[in-house]
Design goal:
The structure is a single chain. This protein is α+β, with helices and mostly antiparallel strands. It has three helices and 16 strands. A six-stranded antiparallel sheet has the order 2-3-15-14-13-8. It is elongated and about 60 Å long. The relative contact order is 0.16.
């Protein structure tokens, strides 16, 4: 049976793919409308529901290159009939043959859905606050972002947790009756700007749920995190 074609990626899908390319340069696309990626260190996993219904599984080794290739065609239409490559074409009858790679040569997430063992810390953060935190981390050249609870409030702090005289910047994101310091590396916060519901499990994993888009990130915490 002939595969459905051609297909165009929406602006929303392109944005998601650009974001995924910062997590892993390669991507295994699965048949359907769910795409998932995982970092090479396996400490970041992301999942998104896209606008398109992909007709088959295929694997792209250089995702940024693939996206740049799409920009050569306005508008870019994708034809998945061939088993070895996708044909990218446009209204001017220009064409690109972009070859798939072997899925065995890339790091990709397991097929099963991830669930947090427990939901021990919950808060929301909007795009403005998140951008301000990441900007402060860049200004002060500090590597750590920590969710800190003192039994009264939850603060997100960017600093160098290994330096007692480190500059730091913090914001309030909620209330708590618990004491904890759940530590991330700033470089692992590779999420699309937006508002997020954040859930942290004391066993060392967090979930960032975008409230406006169908995209979720699971980000591992550092092993020196503490929860009393």
């Amino acid at each position: 049976m002939k595969l459905r074609s051609p297909m165009k990626f929406s602006d929303n899908t392109i944005s998601v793919l650009k974001n995924f390319s910062t997590i892993n340069q390669s991507l295994l696309f699965r048949k359907g409308n769910v795409i998932r990626t995982m970092s090479g260190m396996k400490n970041i996993l992301a999942e998104a529901i896209i606008d398109e219904d992909l007709p088959k599984d295929f694997c792209i080794y250089e995702l940024n290159q693939f996206l740049n290739g799409l920009s050569l065609h306005q508008p870019a239409e994708l034809d998945f009939v061939n088993e070895s490559y996708v044909t990218i074409k446009d209204s001017g009858n220009n064409k690109t043959k972009y070859y798939y790679c072997n899925p065995d040569v890339i790091v990709s997430p397991p097929d099963k859905n991830m669930e947090l063992p427990s939901q021990d810390i919950c808060f929301q953060i909007n795009s403005a606050k998140l951008n301000q935190l990441l900007k402060a981390a860049s200004v002060y050249q500090v590597p750590d972002l920590c969710a800190v609870g003192d039994g009264k409030e939850i603060r997100l702090v960017v600093h160098d947790k290994d330096n007692t005289t480190s500059n730091e910047y913090s914001i309030n994101v909620g209330e708590t009756d618990k004491v904890f310091s759940m530590n991330f590396k700033v470089v692992n916060i590779k999420i699309i700007p937006g508002e997020y519901d954040v859930v942290i499990c004391k066993k060392g994993i967090s979930k960032f749920i975008n409230t406006a888009m169908n995209i979720v990130y699971y980000i591992a915490l550092e092993p020196d995190s503490t929860f009393e």
